Amino acid sequence: MAVLHPVAPNADAALNAPLGRAARERDAAAVLGGPATFAVEPAGPAFPTREAALDAWAGRVEDPRPGGRPVAPEDRWCELRELTVGPPIAPVRPVKAEGRRWPAAPERPATVWRLSVAYWKPATAAEAAEALELDQARRLRRARGEAGALDPRALRRLAAQPLRPVRPQQPLDLGLFEVRLPENPAVIVPDE
Fold it and tell me: Which residues make beta-bridge pairs with 79?
């Protein structure tokens, strides 16, 4: 069964009072009466430990602990994510001294646990037009000058868009243990 994501203007509304639920973009657009876009955003407070977040969001997320309640497949639109707080870790250079290649590991940054909500939200006219003008990643990768000219926002939208076929799928080729008959090449028989 498909996940039925909430349709709402923001992540908090998706948690508390969604306008409806939809599995596909066209279903969400029908609920909204206009174009819809898929969003994944953090919601709710931050928790210092995963256990505290699991206790707070019981019933919304899958609890792997013994005795935890399972979530129905159509309701799996929430997920707990660990986020870093504070400055990011600076990259380190190899030292290659005294038999060691890398320096001592830096101290692990502080983290918090937040609920991540996946939902459908109304798309602005600019977002709808931008989604139509973005080409597929495989075509941009082959075009020499266009791939490097994308801004970070367009690159994120490109990574989040669904895959579309370039052309219809071709008929399947011969299998590993199949051969064409020499007297009639249109007939494929198993090779034993």
Answer: 116
